[in-house]
Hints:
Blueprint: H1 2-24, H2 29-43, H3 55-65, E1 70-73, H4 95-105, E2 109-112, E3 115-117, E4 125-127, E5 132-136, E6 145-148, E7 187-189, E8 195-200, E9 203-205, E10 208-209, E11 215-218, E12 222-232, E13 235-236, E14 243-246, E15 250-259, E16 262-263, E17 278-281, E18 286-295, E19 298-299, E20 309-312, E21 316-325, E22 335-337, E23 342-351, E24 361-363, E25 370-377, E26 387-389, E27 396-403, E28 406-409, E29 413-415, E30 420-424, E31 427-429, E32 432-436, E33 440-442, E34 447-451, E35 454-456, E36 459-460, E37 466-468, E38 473-477, E39 480-482, E40 485-486, E41 494-497, E42 500-504, E43 508-510, E44 513-514, E45 521-524, E46 528-532, E47 536-538, E48 541-542, E49 545-546, E50 549-550, E51 561-563, E52 573-578, E53 581-583, E54 586-587, E55 593-595, E56 603-608, E57 611-613, E58 616-617, E59 648-650, E60 654-658, E61 662-664, E62 667-668, E63 675-677, E64 682-685, E65 691-693, E66 696-697, E67 704-707, E68 712-714, E69 719-721, E70 724-727, E71 731-734, E72 743-745, E73 749-752, E74 755-759, E75 763-766, E76 772-774, ...
Parallel strand pairs: 1-2, 2-5, 3-6, 4-7, 5-8, 6-9, 7-11, 8-12, 9-12, 10-13, 11-14, 12-15, 14-17, 15-18, 16-19, 17-20, 18-21, 20-22, 21-23, 22-24, 23-25, 24-26, 25-27, 26-29, 27-30, 27-31, 28-32, 29-33, 30-34, 31-35, 33-37, 34-38, 35-39, 36-40, 37-41, 38-42, 39-43, 40-44, 41-45, 42-46, ...
Antiparallel strand pairs: 49-50, 82-84, 84-88, 85-87, 85-90, 86-89, 87-88, 90-91, 92-93, 94-95, 96-97, 98-99, 100-101, 102-103, 104-105
Helix pairs in contact: 1-2, 1-3, 6-7, 6-9, 6-12, 6-16, 8-9, 9-10, 9-11, 9-12, 10-12, 12-15, 15-16, 16-18
Amino acid sequence: MYNRSLKGGRVHVNAIVKVFILLLCQADLAASQFEAENVFLKGTSALPNIVNLSFRQTRDIALMAQDETITFVSEDDFVEVNATCGTFDAPCLNLSVALRQIQRRNSSKIALFPGTYSRDGNCGLELGDFPVHISSFPGMDSSETVLNCSSAHSDSGHHATGSGNEYSGNKVCHDDLKSLAVDTGGFVIKPDTRNHVSINGITITGAAGATGGGLHISGKYANVSVTNVVLSKCRSVSSGGGIYVANGASVILRNVTVDRCSGGLDGGSLQSARGGGIFIQGNSTRASLENITLTNNSLNSKSGMGGGIMIDDGATVRIVRLVVSANKALFGGGVTVGKECSVNLENAIITENESEYGAGLGVMTGSAPTLNASFISANVAQYGGGMLVFSDGTPVLEHVIFQGNRAAMGGGAFAHSKSSFKGEACFFTSNRASISGGALNLQELSSIHLHRSHLKSNTAPQGGGIEMLQGASAFIKNTALEINNASLATGGAVSCIGGQLNISATSKLVMNTCATLGGGLYLAQGCFAELSKNVTMTVNSAGGQHDGRCLKKGSSGGGAIAIEPSDDANRPTALIIEECIITQNHAPDGGGIFVTNKYKNGAEVTVLATTIRNNTALGCLDKFNVNGDASDSVASSCLSRYGSGGGISSTTGTLVLARGSKIARNKAGADGGGLHSEESASVSFRGNTTQIAGNIAGSHGGGVSHSGTGTLTIKYGVVILGNQAKNGGGVSTILPNIPSIGIRVQHGVISGNNIALSQGAGFFLTCSMAQGEFSHVTLQGNDAKSGNDFYWGRERSPTKPLRCIQCESSKRYGAATDAIALSLKVDIFNQFHSGFVAPRMQVLLVNQYLEIDETSLGASCQIAAYRNASLERDADIDISGELEAKSVMGLATFKHFIPRGRLGLEYKAIIVCDGIGKLSFRLKVAHCRPGYEPIISRIDSAGYPVARECLLCTDNTFNFDGVACKSCPLGGKCDGGSSLDAQAGWWRSGYFSEMLFACPMRGECLPGNMTNSDACAQGYEGPACGICSNGYRIQGGTCIPCNRSASVLFPLLGVFGFTAFLVYLFMQPAKHSNNNACLLSSIIFMVQSFGLLRDYDITFPDGFDRVAQMMDLANFELSALAPGCLSSGTNFYRSYLVSLAVPPLIISSCYVFHFIVEYYLRNQIRKHASNRVALKDCMREVCEDIKRRCIRNATWLLVLTYSGVTKTIVQLFSARHIDVGSFLRRDYSIDTSDGAYAMFASTGYIALLLYPIGIPISLAWRLYQGFRSSTLEESDFRSIFGFLYGMYRPEFLAWELLVLFCNFFLACVPVFATERILRKHGETRASSYHVEANEQKNSRVKRRLDYGVGSGFSAACQMSIAQASCLLLLVALLWFRPHFMNLHTSQQATAITIILGWTLILGGFMNSGEVVESYSGVDAPHHVLSEEEKNDLCVIASAATAFAVFFMLVTSFTSRELGDLCVRGAHVSQVALAWLHNCVHLFANKTPEEPFVKTHV
Length: 1497
């Protein structure tokens, strides 16, 4: 069926070709191409192999069909064999016929129709006797033209030369290969003359032969090109399962795939089974391979070499873009390069191949292939998973990546004995070996050179990165070895066993790990390693726990480097490190470098100009603990232990550090934070730039720990600085008792700022001082609990003391030994309290240098009382409690012993410490402590009372002196003992102050035990919390935060109201008598008097204090109107000076006003010259009227401001005396004892005479003059002073002045009726007991202080005086009735009654609690109004006051007084508007329609 389809398709193609040729002749090429394509597609619908061809491919096929030089071949049942076959219409039946045709035609081209050729005559043909070019149709994939040789047979009549296939009947093969005798290979090309043979675009499958199952190319005349060819499932008896090239042939392979081919089927030797995919050999053979893919090819697993490709016997091959995958062989599963070959391999991918030796790449003896930019991965072998180099092989690798390869030895590469290779910029990553050498395994005498390469994440039980054996050498430059792991044994990065290792030129070993020894490097059996030129080893680690158990000490260590000594002393394991950095490595022992103790004296380590820092020896613990104790029993349990040698740990051999080497900031859980040496190790530090600095050890030797039989030498300016350990912060030496020198510290060594938590900050010496030599050492800034510079034990050196020749120390006692005496840490307490646990007492155990032996532990000390039988008082002393103490860090602390004895007497006590000595001291029994009082138990023989115990003060009593309990003071809360807390609203000046003072403002003092400013609420400060803090202002008796951006509306309204009042006064006609001003006078008296009550020692209920402050505005208390923080931060002196300036300001203002008006009138006269005479007369009259008005108004204002000025002046003398000083009541920031107050007080006396006393006397004198001169009824006198007497009967002219004096008296009451003044002469009772006398004396002192509002005494007295004065004035008013009109008497009586009523309410009810408490004592039964009841009472009183004022206004209105006032007010407004009108015309430079004088008149 397939052949019929192919035949039908060929007929259609023939028709298409003809049509296409006709179309080429047409003019429109584009249209022709379009039609030809459509016709071609229609004609090829029955040809499935070429139906999807592009137009170009169609054109090429059409052109090829017309090429007479091409012989076509098609496997078709209907094609006849004749002399004319080979055309497109009549192709030849097979290749054998086609070869004869091209030879007959003298051509070389053969084209194969698409299809599978499985008949005879297509395989097993010899080519090359003449030029041949075999190809498929253009554009066809090689898989569409297939030569299936598996079913083809040899045809002796169908080949070019007629000689037949010499491999078809090979009788040498074994019986299992007899089936191959009838098979044929692909093509055999071994010409006798040089003719070019090319094969293109076909697939050869199932071919088999003795060599070269698919293609056999050999001979020096062979010149073959193979392009776009696939060889699949081809087989060979010996070599070259897919392609065989040999004997000087010249071959070009391009885009060739060899898949599933195999060789070595005869089971022969390695020499006969080679190249499962491709085999190339021969000294003169040349091959160029490009884009070659070798997959799934194989050789006999017991004898094959080169499963993918093998190049052998001196062949020269260049390969570009090679893929070798999943091939198998015994040697070189992917690629094998044989002896003396010249191979250049670029861009190769060698992956997933398998073999016993060199799964990816195998390099044989004497071969030197070059690999560049290649990738070798996931190959698996026993030796050399990625590559194996056999003896004398010398490959050169550049930019080659070995990744994920696996092997038993050499996961990445395996170097056989005497082989070598060079790697430039190569990467060995994630390779694994099951035995050793995760990345590289170097056998005896092999060598490698690595430059700019990278070994990362490789793993093996030993030698995670590189494994080197005896005689092997590795030269590593500028290469990084990172994260390699030796999972079971040694050498995380490199394991060198007897070889030579050289690492230099900024190479890095980072984060490598191993299970036992050498996280970075492991050196053993005479290995010589040299690290130089900035090699860095960091974050490498070794050892740890295994299955939860700690390895034996010495079997794991060396985070960076581990060195195992050699058993041959003449060939020691040696390490030289120069100009390198070893940092942040960690291991159980030797965090940086570790020298094991397997053999003695077989290790030499030299460290030159190298820094070893930040390394850690942790033992088997998870974290480092500087306070750890290495001697803990847990260390011997094998579950965990502490490590030694944070930087270096050495147990044998010699170690030299010189030329500026630095061991810094290393840590060890046990000994030797910087370096630990023991057993037979000898260590030498040399050079003035060599440093041991900042190291830490948990036990001994923060810088250096040395023990054993070796010698520690530190010379020539070595610096030991800032190290820390429990013992021996700088150096610790523990030596056996042998006669040899164990430590030498000489020639300018500096030890400074080292710290020992216990003993010997500079040097800790546990040895005979005969074993050490110390000279020319500088010690400075070392710090230890015992022995800042040296600590040496007397037990090991009892006869020979420490001697340091010409040493310099910054401390007087730089050396220390064991304790030999006792001393008290501090002077004993002056007094002990009988019956109470004594304060902790510490006894110091001091050494022969008089320093504390802070390392002394467990010494037993006892304390006891000393009794003298001859002294009676000694019988009263005894000591109980805990009388024994164990020394800790040189201190024996007695914490709970209780002495008992007579209060106030002194006794003797002793302390004895076993094996050290005893100490006596004086013990004085103190009087009772604060909050207690003595209990007298008996009377001694001398008649004195004996007290040995103290009793705690009970509730509501206290004391601070321990003499006698006192009653709780007013305002205090006593819970017994020395407890004295302040109640809310009370204040104490200090913790030991026994007096409390009531706070002047509401809510400012907090309850509790706080004192001074700490007891003040937020916003308050100073004495008695009476000062508002900065940013606060007083309002309504409290300090409130002041709003700095507050509105100025209220101040402006106040100024406007006062200005309106002044205008009203000046607009009143001069001749008006003001006979009806009693209503206004009564209201002003009432408001001013109520405002004066704010300064009394009383407390207003919440809300009403603000009302009282507003009332106080009538007394010109203007602070309530101050906007924002204007009043914050100012003191009383400003208000005082303003008050002094008010009367002069009033008088001067009136005078200035009179002058301005007179000046204005004179100008008006000049402007009206025509009527000047009349205007002068009028001006004279007006000026006199203005003058009378000014005098009258000045007098009014003086009377109106009298109350406020008087209040301010007398407040200057109102001082409050408390225990911390005397302060002005109005302003607690003013101390009345300083010079500034004295200066102001001196002016106050003058101001008191001038204003409060002088103004009433002056007015009385003026009225008296008017009475004597009978001018009281004259209009001029009455217009000025009539408001003072016009409403009173003649015999009571000065009644108004009596009212003024009442205000003066009310202002003086809170100033002079203070608690201090009233109680100054209080009586005291005499007492026969001295305690009561002292208390009575203190009581007299207390009575002279002002306790304030809360005491109640001053409030009661002040209210009583105010009530008496108001009552007296009211009685006089009702008795004498001084007014002309009864209405006026009633108005004034109502005002006085209102004030009297408020004094009764405020004194009798609002402060009743304080009054009762003051007189009855604490807890006396009485009724005190609650805050809610006080508020209700104030509301009722306010309502009554409002009703009384309203009644006054109604009665005045009914009597037309209020109506007259309104009429006068309207008249004043009319006149003011007229003045304003004229002023507008004046400023506009216009003459008014009427003269001013006329308008005024």
